[in-house]
Every structure is written in C-alpha cells, then in structure tokens.
Amino acid sequence: MIKWDGHSHTKFCKHGHPDELERYVDRAIELGFERYSVTEHPPLPEKLIDDERLMAELAMGFDELPAYFDYVRAYRNRYEGRIEVAVGLEFDYLHGNAAFTERLAEPWADVLEDSVMSVHYLPGRGGMRCIDYKPDDFRIHLLDYYGTMEKVVGEYFDHVEQAIEMASGLPGRRRIGHLGLIEKFRHELPPIEEEQIRGRLERLLPLLVRTGVGVDVNLAGLRVATCGKPYVPEWFIRACTEAGVDCVYGSDSHKPEQVGFGWDYYAKAVEC
C-alpha cells in the first residue's frame, strides 16, 4: 500500500494558510509519504451564496487557476524522485449546475491527476447554504428550513449520491469527499441517528462500485471540536475495501502541521 495523502490545500485556499507548498511537502516526506495530492478549491459561480464576505473566503477566482496549476506543477518537478506531488482539485457538487463544473474541468482535463467531488452546499433559506460554515448558520439556514436533522441529512445524502454520479465523469483519480461532513457540528446541533447515517452509507456502496468512484477517507473531523470523529467510519472503509472501492487517506490539511493527521486511524482501518 502506497503511503498517500490524497486531499490537501495550499495558499490559494482563501480560508487556509499562507505558507508555501514546500512546507506541506517537506512535512509529507518527513512522515514517509510517497504521494501527495494537492486538491485546491476551484472557483464557484458568482453569488452562489448571498453573503459577499463568506463568498470571498470559499474559493479562488478564475484568474488564479492558471497560476495554481503552474505552482503545483513546479513543485511536482522540484520534488521528482523524492515524492510524487499530484495536481488536483476539490470540486463542489453544485445542484442543478452540472454545466458549470463541466466547463471548469474541461480545459484542465489533461492536467488533473486527482478530482475530489465534495458536497459543501445545500438548498436552504434564501438560496444555497454552506453546511460547514458555523453551527448557528446551519441552524438558521438549514435546520429551520428543513425542520428536522433527519430531513437535512436525507437531503445531504441525496446530493452525495448525485455527486458520485457526476464525479464519475471527472478527469483523473476520482473520489467523493468527506462523506460525514454533515456531522461537523454534531455537538452543537440536535443529534443525528446513527441508523440513518449507516443506512445511507450502505446505500452508497453499490453506487461507488458501479461508477468506479473512490472514497476520500477524510480525517479532518477528528480535529474539529464540534465533531470529534472521522468523516468516514471504520466499518465503511472495510466494506469499501472488500468491495474493491478505492479508499484514499485524506488529511484535508489547510496548514502544514495538519499533513499526516489521523494516518494511524486510516492504516488500522484498511489493514483490518
């Protein structure tokens, strides 16, 4: 098994850290990683969310994309022979706007080595809403809109299923991002029934097998105080592995010190 971090960010992330990629990659080498995939947030449709300040923090602009790809490819060349630096993006599933994602990906199809597709947004009060912004924002714009956590979770996994279908058409190695992101604020919001989460994850397995889309085993939830658990449970990692679905560790690092976070959890799960 190659030691691979398949989900990471850079200074191009508007809610990340200004350190250069060198610090992230050096940390990966120090920890014995053989491959390091850089999967930055690409541009979003204008006014996706009706909050200008939040929109400014979510993703790079279209004018930054060429510089981003040049930046990562320069490090790939610089570190050749020491670690494989792969060029990728973390696409957003945009409900009802598949054309935007297709237009975004098409010019870079020959460059992209990794495509992570994540669900960060759901329809809510006043339009599209970010599910991982703040607990109060979730409560006002999503929980109050849908009425119960059960309905929010159901909507989220409906979108995840559609995101997997869409991810199957993206370039490179394709994965669905942080499946349990809907639980990010679980300590601040009404409880989510484990039976519902398990049932929806079990429903995803044949879809992942059919589409050939892998799973981003994202450990960022462990370091989030309002969550305190991985975004992908051990039992699901084992089920995916047995079914032949690729499960790739993801630190989701937004700071150099987060590279490698939670690797032991992943290694234990895939070896069981």
UniProtKB/TrEMBL annotation:
Transmembrane segments: none annotated. This is Histidinol-phosphatase. Residues 5-218 form the PHP domain. Its EC number is 3.1.3.15. GO terms for molecular function: histidinol-phosphatase activity. NCBIfam families: hisJ_fam, PRK08123.1. It comes from Paenibacillus hodogayensis. It catalyses: L-histidinol phosphate + H2O = L-histidinol + phosphate.
